[in-house]
Amino acid sequence: MDLLPSRHGPDVLRAAPGGGPANTALAAARLGTPTRLLARIGADGFGAAIRERLLAGGLDPAGLVAAEEPSALALATLGQDGAARYDFRMDDAADWRWRPGELPGALEPGVRALHAASIALFREPGATRIEALLRREHGRGQVTVSLDPNIRADVVGDPAEARALALRHAAQAHVVKASDEDLAFLFPEHTPEGAAHALAALGPALVVVTLGAEGAFALSHGVLAAVPAPRVEVVDTVGAGDSFMGALLHRLDLDGRLGERPRGRLTGLTEADLADLLTFAVTAAAHTVTRVGADPPTADDLRELLEA
């Protein structure tokens, strides 16, 4: 649950359901991609609000686990440019306490992609189970494995261990999306482009890097493309990267780039193909930053922006 500044002053916060993977799942679903979220939902009022938001957004509820623990809290503060910074309260939270049998033993036929992201990748006891799930599905070769490390350095534990774990995750992914801040954590000695090449060398067929207000670039099999971000009036940046990710997965699915034989589906992407993917995704993110909190666009919203 995000606790956001409100128009009533610094002493009054607005509670808004959030969470990176939840925001990404909602972004994809709003654009029309059938989506299921695998998540442990807290046993409190915040958890009830989170569940209500997910179901209202059209997500398949089969992956939602009713946990005994409380919801995690993220206290957001906004800079003058609308950029969000977070202070997390999560030590006893439901999100990453995956138990045996809660994650699926097999993905059902028809699933085309498995996406994993953010803090739950790094915090035990769930991190080990999520890593095993990614490794299994990568080895099976029937779905596209997608990753957004979305690293929060202050809550992922020992930096060296977190870095090693994130790179192991990347090696099990076909698609990796990372921010320039993620790459600075993973490869402090590299430029963003150099870090993208280092990630690609681990095995992903598509590496996408977001640069905030500067746009994004993508690298696939040696082909590089970059696009600027649309110029908009920023309210806050909460959920912008998640909307970008959801839109990216949606567009890849529309283009037949997700599913069995995942590496093969991602071969042959041209510079123009990559630019089209990026334009679609940065437009979704730009729409999100004009709204309060993580509120991704619908297909109609995005169509209007792209045609403007």
Structure commentary:
There is one protein chain. The protein contains ten helices and twelve strands. With 308 residues, it is an alpha/beta fold. The longest helix has 19 residues, at 271-289.
Compile the SSE list and pairings.
Layout: E1 2-6, E2 9-16, H1 20-31, E3 39-41, H2 45-56, E4 64-66, E5 73-78, E6 84-89, E7 113-117, H3 126-140, E8 144-148, H4 159-171, E9 175-179, H5 180-186, H6 192-200, E10 206-210, E11 216-220, E12 223-227, H7 240-254, H8 262-265, H9 271-289, H10 299-307
Parallel strand pairs: 1-5, 3-4, 7-8, 8-9, 9-10
Antiparallel strand pairs: 1-2, 5-6, 10-11, 11-12
Helix pairs in contact: 1-7, 7-9, 9-10
Concise structural overview:
With 308 residues, the protein is an alpha/beta fold.
Enumerate how many helices there are, as a single number.
10
Strand-residue fraction?
15-25%
Largest sheet properties: 6 strands, mixed
Global geometry = globular
Q: Characteristics of this structure?
A:
single chain; 308 residues; alpha/beta; 4-stranded mixed sheet
